[in-house]
Write a structure and sequence with these properties.
Strand order of the largest sheet: 1-5-4
Order of helices and strands: HEHHEEHEEH
Radius of gyration: 18 Å
CATH class: Alpha Beta
Shape: globular
CATH superfamily: Ribosomal protein L17
Helix content: 40-55%
CATH architecture: Alpha-Beta Complex
Strand content: 5-15%
Number of strands: 5
Largest sheet: 3 strands, antiparallel
């Protein structure tokens, strides 16, 4: 019996797999086209991961009452766990050999975009925020490739008009 064996391991340790999903989720939320190209098994694992965090941002849109501000902070902190943290306090720092290192704020930008734009966009939608489109096989290693994208993105809405 396969009890409690719900997700793919993708040939990685738990920490590596969670880090990979966080990177993919951050890339998907921060991308301008709101889509990324990856392998099909990774896309299938990323879909419920991203949909859970978008649902958290939707709940923040529905808040009202006396504890709404505290609850909104709580939801933002829960959503931040789905992305690599980034350091919003660190402006620039010196990396290896004294070179300037880029700001590490991709996770912070993802959470901000999630609550400011995506939570509002999907306020009336009950799930199904992502779409997976199969692309065929990659020539190098014959891996099945796919595009995972957010539905109702800007390019899709322009095409409908």
């Amino acid at each position: 019996m396969r009890h409690l064996k719900a997700h793919r391991k993708l040939g990685r340790t738990t920490s590596h797999r969670m880090s990979m999903l966080r990177n993919l989720a951050t890339s998907l939320i921060n991308s301008e086209k709101e889509s990324i190209v990856t392998t099909l098994p990774k896309a299938k694992e990323l879909r419920p991961y991203v949909e859970k965090v978008i649902t958290i941002s939707r709940h923040a849109q529905e808040l009202s009452g006396e504890n709404a501000a505290a609850e909104a902070v709580h939801l933002r902190r829960r959503a931040a766990q789905f992305f690599h943290a980034g350091n919003s306090q660190q402006k620039t720092s010196t990396g290896v050999f004294g070179k300037e290192r880029a700001e590490r704020t991709a996770g912070v930008k993802a959470v901000k975009r999630l609550f400011d734009e995506l939570g509002v966009r999907y306020k009336d939608r009950n799930g199904g925020y992502t779409r997976i489109i199969k692309l065929g096989r990659r020539s190098g290693d014959n891996a099945e490739m796919a595009i995972i994208e957010l539905v109702d993105n800007a390019a899709e809405l322009e095409a409908k008009k």
